[in-house]
Amino acid sequence: MYWVWMIIVSLIAGIIFGPLARLVLPGKQNISLGWTILGGGIGAFIGGLIAYFLGVKDTSGPDWIQYLIQVICAAIVIAIISSRNSKARTA
């Protein structure tokens, strides 16, 4: 049940982390809002896993390190989606 909850929370986090990731990426990303949210959700899930395995997920206060890892992962996923989308448009 933990993994199902983590997937649901990651997709909800994608609503926040996706646009944040696009803000930290240089240039313009030609992807839709749906891809931004999905990429943010995937990045949040991967970042949550990384934070879990590093042991920084459960702290007594806000999990700032986990959030930072999730935004970085979301930016990487969105950059990959954006680069694939630009290659598809030029082909």
Word description of this protein:
Belongs to the UPF0410 family. It is a multi-pass membrane protein. It is found in: Cell membrane. It holds the Pfam family Transgly_assoc. The chain crosses the membrane at residues 6-25, 32-52, 64-82. With 91 residues, this protein is mainly α. It has a domain at 30-88. Helices cover 79% and strands 0% of the residues. It contains 3 helices and no strands. The chain has helices at residues 2-24, 33-54, 64-90. Helix 1 (2-24) crosses helix 2, helix 1 (2-24) packs across helix 3 and helix 2 (33-54) crosses helix 3. The longest helix is centred in the last third of the chain and has 27 residues, at 64-90. The radius of gyration is 14 Å and the shape is elongated. The protein starts with a helix and ends with a helix.
Taking the alpha carbons of the first and last residues, their distance comes to 43 Å
Uncertain stretches: none
Would you tell me the overall average pLDDT?
83
Q: Would you report the number of β strands?
A: 0
In percent, how much strand structure appears in the residues? Answer: under 5%
Oligomer: single chain
A few lines on this structure:
It is found in: Cell membrane. The chain has 91 residues and is mostly helical. The protein has helices at 2-24, 33-54, 64-90.
Topology, element by element:
Blueprint lengths: L1 H23 L8 H22 L9 H27 L1
Helix pairs in contact: 1-2, 1-3, 2-3
Keywords:
single chain; 91 residues; mainly alpha; 79% helix; transmembrane helix; membrane; Transglycosylase associated protein
